[in-house]
């Protein structure tokens, strides 16, 4: 059994995550950057290696956890960031192959003001712990997200619409 009913399964192929657009006082956005990352295959899907891959914080809520708590936990685990949620800014829905079925993943995004950034507080067990944390301008990150979605052929690789709303 999954640790969260927000996680997809074959019987319930829907997944909910929360995401964050963290904005610094310089009006830059925190993102993960992977020069190269391999996503492990799921049974009948082979491993996929992505190069020059950018992604915002995304986290699956745990059972009993509010969306806001999941945002704050995800920011600390993935970036070592403490922030203040300003507002909800919309969602992205993507269809992704997983374990021989298609998962409908919906990510709910929040605009967050940076309070504290200490990357030494990142969780070493988090899947994103190998990323380079970058602070980029909106004008720089938006075209990168659009390009990588086409290049990688993944619906969830383009978070530019969320950045454009921020």
What does this structure look like?
The model is unreliable at 41-45 (pLDDT under 50). The relative contact order is 0.25. The protein is α+β, with helices and mostly antiparallel strands and 166 residues long. The chain is globular and about 45 Å long. The chain has a four-stranded mixed beta sheet. A three-stranded antiparallel beta sheet has the order 3-2-7. The protein has helices spanning 67-79, 138-152, 160-165, and strands at 14-23, 28-39, 48-55, 57-59, 81-98, 101-117, 132-137. Strand 2 and strand 3 form a beta hairpin. It is built from three helices and seven strands.
Features:
3 helices; about 170 residues; four-stranded mixed beta sheet; alpha+beta
In short:
With 166 residues, the protein is an alpha+beta fold.
Topology:
Layout: E1 14-23, E2 28-39, E3 48-55, E4 57-59, H1 67-79, E5 81-98, E6 101-117, E7 132-137, H2 138-152, H3 160-165
What overall geometry do the principal axes of the alpha carbons give? globular
Distance between the termini: 36 Å
- Low-confidence stretches are 41-45
Average of per-residue pLDDT values: 89
């Amino acid at each position: 059994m999954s640790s969260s009913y927000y996680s997809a399964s074959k019987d319930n192929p829907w997944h909910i995550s929360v995401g964050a657009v963290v904005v610094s006082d310089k009006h830059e956005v925190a993102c993960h950057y992977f020069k190269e990352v391999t996503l492990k295959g799921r049974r009948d899907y082979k491993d996929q290696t992505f190069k020059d891959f950018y992604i915002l914080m995304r986290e699956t809520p745990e059972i009993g956890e509010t969306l806001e708590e999941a945002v704050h936990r995800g920011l600390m685990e993935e970036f070592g960031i403490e922030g203040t949620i300003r507002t909800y800014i919309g969602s992205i829905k993507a269809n992704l192959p997983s374990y021989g079925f298609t998962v409908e993943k919906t990510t709910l995004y929040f605009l967050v003001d940076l309070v504290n950034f200490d990357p030494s507080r990142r969780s070493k067990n988090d899947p994103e712990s190998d990323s380079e944390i970058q602070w980029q301008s909106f004008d720089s990150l938006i075209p990168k997200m659009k390009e990588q979605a086409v290049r990688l052929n993944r619906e969830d690789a383009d978070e530019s619409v969320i950045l454009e709303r921020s």
